[in-house]
Design a protein that fits this description.
4-stranded parallel β-sheet, Oxidized Rhodanese, domain 1
């Protein structure tokens, strides 16, 4: 699945994974790190970001949950299926 032409990429991965494999530079979209806890608690502060929000995690499971929470908050959000490995394959292909 290609990334949208505009919007924001929300990176749910823990700090150690983000540090080991940063998405900034791989993605044409701005990348914003956020925790699933912040999204669940509604303390994410994502309302002012450029939509759509594309949520990504290690494999796609947590991003699907996070996207549901964000949509329930009224935001235009979707999960990137397959997580970072799928995004890397997309960028290589």
């Amino acid at each position: 699945m290609p990334l949208p032409a505009t919007g924001t990429l929300i990176d749910l991965r823990p700090d150690d994974l983000r540090d080991a494999q940063p998405l900034t530079g791989l993605s044409p979209l701005p990348v914003v790190p956020v925790t699933l806890d912040a999204i669940e608690e509604g303390t994410h502060r994502l309302r002012d970001l450029t939509p759509p929000l594309t949520v990504i995690c290690e494999r796609g499971v947590r991003s699907a949950l996070a996207a549901r929470y964000l949509r329930a908050d009224g935001l235009d959000a979707s999960a990137y299926p397959g997580g970072v490995p799928a995004l890397l394959r997309e960028m290589e292909g």
